[in-house]
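Onboarding guide, step 5: your first structure request.
Type a short instruction followed by the sequence, for example:

Predict the 3D structure of this protein.
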Amino acid sequence: MANKKVNEDLLKERAKCNFDVEELTNLLDDGADYTKWRRTLEHNILNVKGLLDVIPEEYLSHKEKYENGIRKSLMMRQALKLYDKESAGRSFEENIRFNFRNSLWSAVMKDISPILLHLQMFMVAIIEQGNDEQREYWAKRAANFEIIGTYAQTELGHGTFIRGLETQATYDEDTEEFVLHSPTLTAYKWWPGGMGHTANHCVVMAQLNIKGKNYGIQPFMVQIRDGETHMPLPGVKVGEVGPKMGFNTVNNGFLGFDNVRIPRDWMLMKNAQVLKDGTFKASPNSKLLYGTMVYIRVIIVNEVSKNLAKATTIAVRYSAIRRQSQPKPGAPEPQIIDYVTQQHKLLIAIATSHAYHFTVRWLWDCFTKISQELKRGEFKNLPELHVLACSMKVTSSADCTALIEKCRLACGGHGYMMSSNLPVLYGVSIATVTYEGENTVLLLQIARSLVKTWDQIYKGHISVSPSMMYLGNRTPLPEWDTSLQGMLKSFERVAKGKVSTSISSLDKYRESGLSPEDAWNKASVQLIAAAEAHARVILLSVYKTEVERRASTLSAPLATVLHQLLEMYYIYWTLEKIGDFLLYTKLTASDVRDLQHRYEDLLEKIRPNAVALVDAFDFRDEILCSTLGAYDGRAYERLMEEALKSPLNAEPVNQSFEKYLKPFMRGKL
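The system replies with structure tokens like these:
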């Protein structure tokens, strides 16, 4: 891009950079080869005529947004055929990893595609829960878009509590069919993406009943619309749930059944089977059924960290070109990024995006490793995977969403504009806090695992999951250690202290005569705090390990700036949780002052590299979709250009003047 087209302040910011931006981009892309491939793909796809909107999505009606979303989604799939051919030699796992690093879809679909669940959950459910014959039949049809599917689990009345789902699947041995039925309004499936008007098939999670006995939740393939006319099939009640805070092109839907029959072999039977005579063959491990949810939680961590990286890119670039106030009389208005309060808002967002970027790669490796163990019939590490996935889903969705909002606020009034894309990023991100497991419920699940592990440790059991081994540390409390390893050990002490305190409260409530359930409920605020502290330990540990592991392969300047971000992240969270550290470690008032000064020094050191750090995320302008965050820094010009696209500006006088305003002003209305 020619320098004359770029804002002068941004040019000066980029000149301050003291590391190789391309080197960091390659690191974040997992290699220079992928960077090259990604850029080529982005260039080819985003130059397909008609794929990018001429009229911004926000000016369309709800119905028009959906119809436009379908049009673009199918164009996108056609455009990606070349990529599909290039990917043909890779395994399913490799393709998934390759795909979840790609942000191309957000350039085409600002507010999520209506075929997202077909690609991310329907196909994965078939692979993870279907037997060999079912995978051969259904996966091939789904991959070729001969059918379009979604994944129907959450109901009006139940979400995270899967055992409470009400949809019934009753086996009729005379006809060798399952009868699906929604006995109540609250049994209606609610939220599946693409369910409203897009999907013609879905994987439905339902209560299996055979001869009057319940066998728990099982997955069933169900056709819901006619293959030719797309009309709902008899007994199927389906539609869209309506406008939402975000996801308004996803076509989220509802689904109810009135005694709908499906063949016996449409139950996905990799993990459990129903024979012709109604004999039920149980899964070797009931938790195998939740593999799809674990997978999607890994995807959530990746997606929210990507969305935070976008928001941070927008806010940092805008902060570099925005000038405001006059703290020194007679001096020019400074860039707002020169205010330490602005650095405090934004630099931690860069570090947080890195933290989850590296952590999700580690988590994906854990997922694939344990998935291979499950295929061999080894289940010992499945509970650990569940805790890890829950922990990172909770912290990533909460942290990244909060920081996206902080980025929006950091852009002042212009961050309120839809054209900034910050409200859209927030709307998409905030949904992750409550889907695929509401965060409080997941924290309570983590807490149950912590309480169980605590009990095992203090009964002398040696076998403890790696992420919880620190709970067995009985060494005396050490003096405050300012090194990163010392701080990590202090975070472990905090988590252990909170677990211990919450268990003491739990025991006290039990001893007072409360039932175990009531005691748990009364101590639950302390228990989720302990679970959050445990999740924070995992994140800090993995972030540190992954950065230090890569440091030896990087140039000294890049290794230095990555370590500065890591150190700032550690200190930031220490200061955020200062009350916990004063309770459970030997942190003193003097130590706090030292940490504060150290934090401020790090902000000063990182500040010259701020724009370069977000440039290294390497988001094309089409992917950022932001008037404030484009590479050239022409924020004000773009704001005006975008405003002029409003249909209201197509005519100088709107018809409402003659119809309403003029008569009212003349007292004739």
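Each response can be followed by summary notes, for example: Residues 340-375 form the longest helix (36 residues).
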